[in-house]
Amino acid sequence: MQIGRRQFMAGLATTTLLGSIGRAGAQSTTLSAPWMGWPEEQVAPLMAAFEKETGIKVAAERLPIAELFKTLEVRLQARNEIPDVYLVDGPLTASYAARGHLLVLDEMLADDLERFLPSTLVQGTYDEKLYAMPLGTSTQILFYNKKLFAEAGLPEPSADPAKRMTWEEALSIAQALTKPEISQFGIAFENCNPYQLLALPQSWGAEVIGPDQLTAAGYVNGDAMVDAMTWYQELHQTHKVAPVGTFQTGVTQEMFGSGKLAMIVGGTWNLVGFEKFEGLDFGVAPHPYFAKGTPVTPTGSWHIGINPRTAHMEEAKAFVRWLSTRDAMDLWFELRQYPPSLRQIWEERASTNFIDPVWEIVQHELEHTATPRPATPGYREYEDFLKTAMQDINTGADVRATLDRAAQNIDREMRKYR
Amino acid sequence: MISSRWTPFLFLAPALAGLLIFRLTPILVAVGGSLSGVSLMGELRYVGLENFEYLADDPEFWESLRTTLYFNLLINPIQLAVAFALALLVFRPLPGVWFYRTLLVLPMAVSTGISAVLFGLFLDGNLGPMNGFLEWIGIGAQPFHRSHDQALYTLIGIATWKGAGYWMLFLLAGLYSIPSTVYEAATIDGANGWQRFRYVTLPLMRKPMAFVLVADTAINFLFFAPVYILTSGGPSGSTSVLMFQAYRAAFTFSDIGRSLAISTVLLGIIAIIVVLEFRFMRSPEEAK
Amino acid sequence: MDNPFQKPHVLMLRYGLLSILAFIVVFPLVWLALASVRPQNEIFQPVSDFGWNTFIPSRFTLDNYRTLLNGDFPLAVKNSTFVALTTVLFGVVVNALAGFAFAVFDFRGKNLLFLLVIVSFMMPFEAIVLPLYVMIRAFGWANSYQALIVPEIANGMVIFLFRQFFASIPRDFYEAARVDGASWFYIFARIAMPLSWPTIATSGLMLFLAQWDSFFWPVVAASDSAYAVVQVAIARNINFEQNDWGGLFASTNLAILLGTIPFLLIQRFYVRTLISGGIK
């Protein structure tokens, strides 16, 4: 009841405000918005809907992912009024905020914050202020090939988070599913990024960064981290149940799709990615965990932020506020199926889209096990060195020496944030 | 020598104006920027040689410098030699030679970045056809860019695959500029094939070769996209060239000053090496 | 033509060597081209299954190309072609003039100026992109063709190329024309340039390819979708979460084929007679 009233009020306020902006925008302001290079048909309708409602145009510049980050750096470091709004990768919020590239959104969204799943707001928050609004979130699940399980005479893993597999169990199943003579592997992570792999040390019980969010020594190369990453390396190098050199989601997806990989730990985007493999019959199960530790799942996704130097402040705010509405988020989910950040979308679609066990698992993880990446202003540095280290570990480098080097490098680059 | 007071500048004006505005001024700004530091909030301040002192104390920088020099010591002579060999092979008339020539230059229409993506897939250990081929002919699968020992050579291979045909064209243009009368004279004097090549072709090819060597050197010292796309400087730092360090400093560490210092060092190194190359390539008459 | 190259065994050796080298160069491209006409789900074949099916599609499809034609790829091709050809048109003339000056004249500050020309291509583009971007914005050129074309016309490497080739034309040539009262511009346009067709063709190709392959600058300076260029359109197929390999291969393949057309057109200039006829 209370929520209903608040939503009503928020809706009213939004409508009034948008109405006034709509008039102001009659001179047709165009917002510049660096965006991900998703296909046009997944981007344009969102912008068109906003323009229809307010008369404000949004020029979404669809950039390939690496260029999105590079271009944002060039534009933001020029410190002028371009861009007006931009897509923020969740864990980079702190990095942009600490350098004065993001506007604080708390006041503007004060009445709306409770409509979001709390875990989705964590990554947009830095220094206890919300700088970037989540457009969605993500989690990782275990996909398995039903045919390969049947051939090996193995029972399929349960989709029930209460009966979650341990990594120890997953390893022995993977061994049964590995057939070197036909290059068939048991299991793989979709890539080697910290987003993907930090859940391993975290489930093992490791703290992956110091409490000040700036210290790597003793954490990135702490014993728990080294042990967990040694376990990861053995998967590839000792047990040989996982293919070596799988650094790219697109390639690992192909291996799973062509039936050469029995299990893959990956994001919900794979649901769309696997569609092209006609003969593929796959099932889903929750992310495994270490018997000695706790279940942990990666999370976080794209956010939207405002350049504080924008010359179109009101229009930019209107855009972000509009994106937070139920209608915009619903449309966004239609276009790209990231797990929604608004509770309402989950509730409304509970009986239509979210009947698949996949979404039950996702919802469970988001509420119970989702662990955001470190909220450090130095996440770019942290991620860069750790990713390289994880790739080296994957291909067989000495685990402790590699993590020592990464910790040392991260600490050196973190100095400027102290 | 021909001299005229104003004519040369009229000829130079359009190009120099373009270079001055769009290249040299930004370069000057960049070199000046290497003496500055940018705070987190974007305030610029003069720091003197601090960025260079930082580099001097950074073992990663020295390791990267070694990698860069080693990479260039190999790749530039290799590319020049391969390009010259190709040019000689397709120079003389031969039925169908235009077809071979076209095949050899196809890679130049692939951008460096895309060539890296392409080879990442082509050489992939699990799905790439190259390893299937190597196993089929009995050599066995290779880790290529995923191995500490092979990564740098893999990058050299990819760059040469893309570059050889391109540089061949310049040498080919050079070969066609040698008047056939020169050869005829040498033949009449009784020179054999090797002697003609050694005493006629090579000396007359000095200028085109100098061009290829110098231009290629500048390009290879700035070689970057494949490192970024394929190896991220790894495995274990084995391909971490200076360009990659400069890129990371600017775009990942937000340390523009340090990045520009690395770029300035690169500029200095390339300049020194290019001067040496000019000396090496000049003719005996010019040396006097 | 003279003898040893026409002997049968030498001929065989040349064809043999050329075939091996061409195979090395073309092998990855053939794989790419064949993969682009496969159905999406069988673009890759596991290493252990190497054989004819690694290359020959089980089912031939043009779906990937059809998708490209319906997307923004045709626009990108149009943009890149326009940008590249305009750059070639202006670039060849502007840089040839400068190269001619460096090769033929003696003037104060020549060495210093030439050094600056060389230096202009020794700085990483990543280091100058920020000042360049600020400048382009100050000119009001952000998101325009000017931003893509104008900064790329003057090219140190092309000036250097022209200098090297003009310098190999004997000076007496020019002197003779001067004695006859020809102006320097006449000498440049009517004597030096016609003697340099292979160089003009190569420099044009250089400028064309620099634009055809350019990627980072267009992304920064003109990222509006109306100015999409080929390499950006290709790279959009590479996505962190999900790659469109079919789209990537098909667009790369088209970019290679289209980007090779200029070479096919200029190949006719790679013949000796033009210049040897001139120099006696």
TrEMBL record, chain A:
Q: Which UniProt keywords apply?
A: Periplasm, Signal, Sugar transport, Transport
Could you list the residue ranges forming a coiled coil in this record?
Answer: none
For this chain, the family text in UniProt reads: Belongs to the bacterial solute-binding protein 1 family.
Q: What name does this protein carry?
A: Multiple sugar transport system substrate-binding protein
Q: Which Pfam families does UniProt cross-reference here?
A: SBP_bac_1
Note the InterPro entries from the entry.
SBP, TAT_signal
Q: Name one GO cellular component term.
A: ATP-binding cassette (ABC) transporter complex, substrate-binding subunit-containing
Q: Does the keyword Transport apply?
A: yes
Question: PANTHER family from the entry?
Answer: MALTOSE-BINDING PERIPLASMIC PROTEIN, MALTOSE_MALTODEXTRIN-BINDING PERIPLASMIC PROTEIN
One GO molecular function term? maltose binding
GO-annotated biological processes: maltodextrin transmembrane transport; maltose transport
From TrEMBL, chain B:
What does the sequence similarity comment in the record state about its family?
Belongs to the binding-protein-dependent transport system permease family.
Q: Which Pfam families match?
A: BPD_transp_1 (PF00528)
Gene3D superfamilies in alphabetical order? MetI-like
Q: Which CDD domains match?
A: TM_PBP2 (cd06261)
Indicate what this protein is called per its UniProt record.
Answer: Multiple sugar transport system permease protein
Q: Which residues cross the membrane?
A: 69-91, 103-123, 164-188, 209-230, 260-280
Please list the residue ranges annotated as the ABC transmembrane type-1 domain.
65-277
Q: Which domain of life is it from?
A: Bacteria
Origin organism of this chain? Answer: Aquamicrobium aerolatum DSM 21857
| One GO term of the biological process aspect | transmembrane transport
> A cellular component term (GO) from this record?
plasma membrane
- Which membrane topology term applies here? Multi-pass membrane protein
Automatic annotation (TrEMBL), chain C:
Q: Does the keyword Cell membrane apply?
A: yes
The residue ranges of the ABC transmembrane type-1 domain are 77-266
- PROSITE patterns, per database record: ABC_TM1
**Which residue spans traverse the membrane?**
12-34, 82-105, 112-136, 148-166, 187-209, 247-266
What GO terms fall under cellular component here? Answer: plasma membrane
- Where is the major localization of this protein? membrane
Asked whether the UniProt record includes Metal-binding among its keywords, one would answer: no
Q: Which family does it belong to?
A: Belongs to the binding-protein-dependent transport system permease family.
Name of the protein: sn-glycerol-3-phosphate transport system permease protein UgpE
Q: Which organism encodes this protein?
A: Aquamicrobium aerolatum DSM 21857
